[in-house]
Specification:
about 180 residues, alpha+beta, 4-stranded mixed sheet, elongated
Length: about 180
């Protein structure tokens, strides 16, 4: 049985898709959840079981001036059902649905040292070529991998690091002994 965050995200996604507002809803949901994440007082206000649904709804109406009606209605529903704490999971699930719809992949290149931007971009272009999907590319440094790279493509990990090779060698030696 799917969890509540996914069910709510799917409902918002389908409403947005039916009305041609997916990009707008994705952007506004991101802005809203980012604001909630940054503001502890807003979290207390929206997530508190001690404040009434009516108080939360009125506060939300003041805060969401100019938002898509579908987002307004959706957030109102979360408040009524006491599901507002699910908003961060809803966003993650909505983002995944949006990426799948738009054929986008998250790709992260992890290396032991900072790679030249052109190298990272070439890796991204190769992933795009092989998958046929657009790539949202990022890179980071992890000196623990010693050398080589670890490539995160969507939910797959391709580990071509020296640390990984050394670990495989250690296991081979251990089983041979």
């Amino acid at each position: 049985m799917p969890e509540a965050g996914y069910v709510y995200a799917l409902a918002l996604f389908e409403a947005g898709k039916d009305r041609g507002k997916l990009d707008s809803l994705q952007s506004q949901l991101t802005q809203f959840t980012d604001a909630v994440e940054r503001d502890h007082d807003l979290q207390v206000f929206l997530f508190s079981p001690y404040l009434s649904t009516q108080d939360k709804s009125e506060g939300l109406k003041r805060a969401l001036d100019g938002a898509e009606p579908e987002l307004d209605n959706f957030l109102e529903l979360l408040i009524e059902k006491h599901r507002m704490p699910e908003i961060f999971r809803v966003r993650r699930e909505f983002d995944e649905l949006w990426k799948r719809e738009n054929r986008r992949l998250d790709v992260t290149v992890v290396s032991a040292v900072e790679l030249d931007r052109s190298v990272v971009e070439k890796i991204g272009q190769e992933v795009e070529r092989q998958t046929g999907e657009a790539v949202d590319l990022s890179s980071r440094v992890d000196d623990g991998i010693l050398g080589g790279i670890v490539l995160h493509v969507g939910n797959m990990v391709l580990d071509a690091s020296i640390r990984s090779r050394l670990e495989k060698l250690r296991k081979t030696v251990a089983t041979a002994a």
